[in-house]
Amino acid sequence: MKKTCAQASLVSLADPEAIYSLLKNSATYPFWSMIDEFELIRPGTDEPHGVGSQRKFRTGRFVMHEEVVELVPNRLVAYTLLSGFPMSEYRAETILDPIEGGTKITWRCSFHPKYKRSGWFWRLVMFYIFRRLERGVARASENLEQRLEFLAAAHGNATSKRSLV
Asked: What angle separates helix 144-153 from helix 119-142, to the nearest 10 degrees?
């Protein structure tokens, strides 16, 4: 069966370094996205949020278990989905391309849907999710004070939207 792919892009005024600092630190996601809670399941080989780290994100009643599989400083964050959606061989990448006056953020994924003929549905869902994630990280990255607040609050093995209050 052919893999289904989804992709969304957005241009931010922030530089790649600012965006990457939030993308790499999984504990910041509840502060700038629709994700309610983050939990570090296993630290990475060289650092807590590094390659090999496993994380759980909770959004409402959905729980996504992911593993970070590739990091290229200020350019790329890639992860695989271990559980959470009816998909297999899911891999997503967030690519940061420096452009004049900012950064082009591209969030893309490929996967096999669990159920036949549901690829079109999951492609739309992932496009919608990626757009929301891109808008959130762009907004947070463009505001230095907010970004520093999020990074300062993102410590420990678990964070939630309530952690920031």
From this structure: 110
Stated pTM of the model: 0.95
Along the chain (165 residues), what's the average pLDDT of each consecutive run of 10 residues? 93 98 98 97 96 97 97 98 96 98 98 95 97 98 97 92 79
Residue 88: how many other CB atoms lie within 10 Å = 12
Structure tokens of 131?
Answer: 């757009």
Q: Which residues, at least 6 apart from 82, have a Cβ–Cβ distance to it below 8 Å?
A: 54, 65, 66, 67
pLDDT of residue 162: 83
Which two tokens mark 22?
Answer: 């939030």
- Residue matched to tokens 């607040």: 149
Contact yes or no for 4/137 (Cβ under 8 A): no
Give the orientation angle of helix 119-142 with respect to helix 16-24, to 10 degrees.
120
The pLDDT assigned to 78 comes to 98
Matching residue, tokens 């669990």: 114
